[in-house]
Design brief:
About 30% of the residues lie in helices and about 20% in strands. With about 140 residues, it is of the alpha+beta class. Strands 3-4-5-6 form a 4-stranded antiparallel beta sheet. Strands 1-2 form a two-stranded antiparallel sheet.
Amino acid sequence: MATRGIWAIAASGEISGSRPEPEVVSRSAGKTVRFEQRYANERQDKYDQFANELAALDPDLLKIMCCPESHQKLREADSTLVATLNKQIASGTLKNRGGQVVTEQIAGGLIREDGKFLYPVREHPVMLVNEALPLS
């Protein structure tokens, strides 16, 4: 099969699945595109899409959502707090309420009325008590 001018996948796998370890994916007009660059760009696009969807969280939905433990009202976290938590996640210092180190960045969060916990939002709000992030 000729690979000149067409995509030649060096390894199988989907973006949502496990990350493959290929070298070169495409050769076109003397330029080489590495899979790692494509993967990073597509992953960032997905993350940005989820962050935008969070910004468009339906206010009526937020009114009826509550903390699964205390039934307190929730409010959206501001971008400064989300950025601070993502830095802690990147450094490996943030633990969730269940005591596990958080490894996945968040796109946003919902803060409990008393301000003690934040429920992370990744692809969707994660409303599990043990996944809540302590804020104090």
